[in-house]
Design brief:
By secondary structure, this protein is of the alpha/beta class. The protein folds into 2 domains: 321 residues, Glycosidases (TIM Barrel); 106 residues, Immunoglobulin-like (Sandwich), CATH 2.60.40. Helices cover 25% and strands 22% of the residues. It starts with 15 loop residues before the first strand and ends in a 7-residue tail after the last strand.
Amino acid sequence: MATQPSNGPVSNFGMGLSAYIIGDHLPKRKGNESVRETIEKLVQIPMADKLYIRPTWRQMQSRRGRLEMFEHWQVTLELAEKYNKPVGFRIMLSNPDIEEESLPDFVLEKVPMQFLGQGWDAGEVADPGEIRTRREHRIPHYHHPYFLEALSEFDALLAEQYNGHASIEYMDTYMHGFWGEGHTWPFESISPFPNYETGVETWLRIFEMQRAHWSRTPLVTNLQPDISKAGNDELVRRTLQTGEWLRSDTIFIEPQQIELAGSRPPQTAFISEVGMSDGTPASLQIHNGVPQTENIIAHVRDVGANYWSLWNWHNIHADHVMNYYRQYPAGIDSLQRVIGYRLRPAWIWTYGKAPEMGLLIGLANDGISGVPGLVRLTLLDPNGQAISEATLEAGHPTPHQVRLVRLELPAGTRWEGTRLKAAVVVKGVHHPLRWACREALNPDGSLIMKRDQNL
């Protein structure tokens, strides 16, 4: 038997286009829209099969010992389940683009805050309409015992409810500075730590705390170079050592990030966050007849990303994403058809003779990334009983690679009529995989084995 690659979108765990519910600002409500109506429009973006939300700690907790999650989080999780669009998220410890503090009052009352500066002197013309240009910027002493204790308690409460949750795809690691990206640019020379070693020790401690709580959900570390000397490089190394994932919020600047993304291990998923045009003439930024967003998409493919953001930066609304898409659908459509991994049993051979027979599966990957976990194959008889299983090594098959997998058949078993299904195993959790082939599949994504090649 031989299968052909699918020419349409395929949604699986560890890959996809993500509609942003919150980036730095809340989504823009238009007219008389309720919060639910605005979020539901974002969830319903047809090209998006994943969601992303980035609240502050303050928006998720106001008193120690309990969670008090704000409306946007609650609505997003409800709609994620309704539309089967899992959520990636980050809890920000600092957001310079909003008026209110990012930390709960009970933390602010106990933890010293490091003053960074007033306004936003970034060597460019400041926009007086932006909050960052007029507010005072402060970050906490992350190494303070009360901060570490309170964050650990909050994270444990969050994990108790969402670790391994079916609607949660991944969680970003807590990181230093603005937006939790690992920097305090343009104030990178000012640090809350007494020395570099304390910064490294603090962030590795927080990372290991988070890993202990999120034992069934992938963690994602931003590839921000360590311009604030807070230990980012060590944090990235620990992330790779422990099998967690990576992300970046740039696709053109900082060559270090680009190389790390493009040369990462095949089992390490990569999330690419880059803002897109909202379709207005000023935002298109056309060069050589090509909008900037199309150039971004080309480079997202170059690094073999697993995810890409459908995100209008500080102008989030479903209408803005769709305004661009209606004008320039080809780039997003083409990315949706290659992003992440796209596995199919390209060749199915039989071997041996009755009563000792089996199948040899030639797995192909038509996507642009490796598999962010272990692929587990299961052969089922017509009654749905497992009769043979096999597991590949992490990350394989990689793009343009064929991996052979042997599935032994019990004596007397006919191979035709069996079903081949697969799962991606990440942190011990089996995520069902839908084959990316043109042939008809069962509702569970499995493929019925039948002869279609007379060789």
